[in-house]
Amino acid sequence: MTLNFRIRMRFSIILFLSLAGCSGDRLSAPPIAEDKFIHIYADKIVLEEEAKLENSGGVVNLDTLYTRYQVTAPQFQTTLDYYRKDIGRWRQLHENVMNRLQELKGATMAGKN
């Protein structure tokens, strides 16, 4: 091997490792759009609370929820993990979900009148 080839090979390896290391810091976009995920997560919370009231231990089969919103369990989990990896993003999501729950509460109360 020539010296020039070795230098190029080392440079290529260092460049590859540098780029591979940097790519782990960035979070790619989640598979479920934020607005849709807010609705799904709020509905999940409601279903879990209803299950607790029905003495089923809060265990909920989320398949109907996934079907309703046309998502899969892995998509849901990947999106959830995306938000959990960044505390600021998680807090913002949580605030948006709480706002959505308030909207649902308002709609329910308006329907009772």
Would you kindly provide a written description of the structure presented here, covering whatever features stand out?
- The protein has one domain (29-112).
- Helix 2 crosses helix 5.
- With 113 residues, the chain is mostly helical.
- The chain has helices at residues 3-23, 34-53, 63-69, 73-84, 87-112.
- The longest helix is centred in the C-terminal third of the chain and has 26 residues, at 87-112.
- The chain is elongated and about 80 Å long.
- The model is unreliable at 19-25 (pLDDT under 50).
- Helix content is 76%, strand content 0%.
Give a quick summary of the entry.
By secondary structure, the protein is mainly alpha-helical. It has helices at about 5-25, 35-55, 65-70, 75-85, 85-110.
Choose one word for the global shape.
elongated
Question: What is the averaged pLDDT score?
Answer: 82
- H/E series: HHHHH
Structural class: mainly alpha
Q: Tell me about the biggest sheet?
A: none
Rounded to an integer, what's the Rg over CA atoms? 22 Å
Give the number of DSSP strands.
Answer: 0
Number of discrete domains: 1
Helix content: over 70%
| Stretches with pLDDT under 50, minimum 5 residues | 19-25
State the separation between the terminal residues, measured CA to CA.
Answer: 84 Å
Q: Beta fraction of the residues?
A: under 5%
Q: How many alpha or pi helices?
A: 5
Question: What distinguishing features does this structure have?
Answer:
113 residues, mainly alpha, 5 helices, elongated
What's the layout of helices and strands?
Blueprint: H1 3-23, H2 34-53, H3 63-69, H4 73-84, H5 87-112
Helix pairs in contact: 2-5
